[in-house]
Amino acid sequence: MRVIRVDASTATILLTEAPAPKVRDRQTGEIAKDAVTGEALMTVGVVYIDEGESSLIQVTVPESGVTEGLTVGAPVSLPGLVARPWQSVFNGRERHGIAYRATAVAPGAFSMAQAG
Fold first, then answer.
1. Residues of 60-74 as b/e, b for ≥16 C-beta within 10 angstroms?
2. Does residue 82 register a pLDDT over 60?
3. Which CATH number do you get for residue 15?
4. How many domains are contained in the chain?
5. pLDDT digits (tens, 9 = 90+) for 85-100
């Protein structure tokens, strides 16, 4: 699977949804775990603003990477942010998208590139 590193050094990233457990199976409530470490995964909602464009995205982070002091609406940093294109076929219907993952989510600062 192709992994694309995301350079967020000039972006402003604002927290729109507090960290919550990533659910693997909605019917059973099973929490998703990292395939390598077995650690529980969390998701956070953010707005990613760079070069005058913005996107609302969901980012998966390991539970140990969720830092204290996160406030909805405040800037955050997402070290190790990567994007993974995906596609699947279910009942003859093709779906595709981009999954985002970071090693952590921590309080951040407004980018100087955006502050001008």
1. bbbeebbeeebeeee
2. yes
3. 2.40.50.390
4. 1
5. 999 888 889 999 999 9
